[in-house]
Design brief:
- The strands form two sheets. A four-stranded mixed β-sheet has the order 3-6-5-4, with no helix packed on it. The chain has a two-stranded antiparallel sheet with strand order 1-2.
- It has one domain: 2,3-Dihydroxybiphenyl 1,2-Dioxygenase, domain 1 (Roll).
- It contains two helices and six strands.
- The protein is of the alpha+beta class.
- The longest helix is centred in the first third of the chain and has 10 residues.
- Helices cover 17% and strands 22% of the residues.
- Strand 5 and strand 6 form a beta hairpin.
- The radius of gyration is 15 Å and the shape is globular.
- This is Catechol 2,3-dioxygenase-like lactoylglutathione lyase family enzyme.
Length: 116
């Protein structure tokens, strides 16, 4: 039986991004050994989308109120990348991690599997 999922974010400044995940995203974690932090994620879901290009994977955080979440991030000095875009499946935005990587987040307008 599958008991969970392990998501890996590759980073050019892993320590700064780990600090951000712990301190700004406020995700609890454990030390997996030698200071290697692994964070608990909120409930999750997986979707498979078709592509005409090479296969790739994506990681998005979901929130119930995107405007409120972005306001909280702004108050903490987090860079919001571009304006919120309206998609047929939800409202999409992205934030900048300390490493410079983008982390997308969205407010879904579709039924979600993680709360079933």
């Amino acid at each position: 039986m599958i008991s969970g999922a392990h998501v890996i974010l590759y980073s050019q400044d892993a320590e700064a991004d780990r600090d951000f995940i712990r301190d700004v995203l406020d995700l609890p974690g454990v030390d997996a050994g030698g200071g290697w932090l692994v964070f608990r994620l909120p409930p999750a879901e997986v979707a498979v989308h078709p592509t005409d290009g090479p296969p790739r994977h994506g990681f998005f955080l979901m929130c119930d109120d995107l405007d409120s979440q972005l306001s909280g991030f702004r108050a903490q000095g987090v860079e919001i990348i571009g304006p919120v875009s309206e998609q047929r499946w939800g409202r999409l935005a992205a934030i900048r991690l300390p490493s410079g990587a983008e982390l997308p987040l969205y407010e879904p307008h579709h039924p979600t599997a993680h709360s079933r």
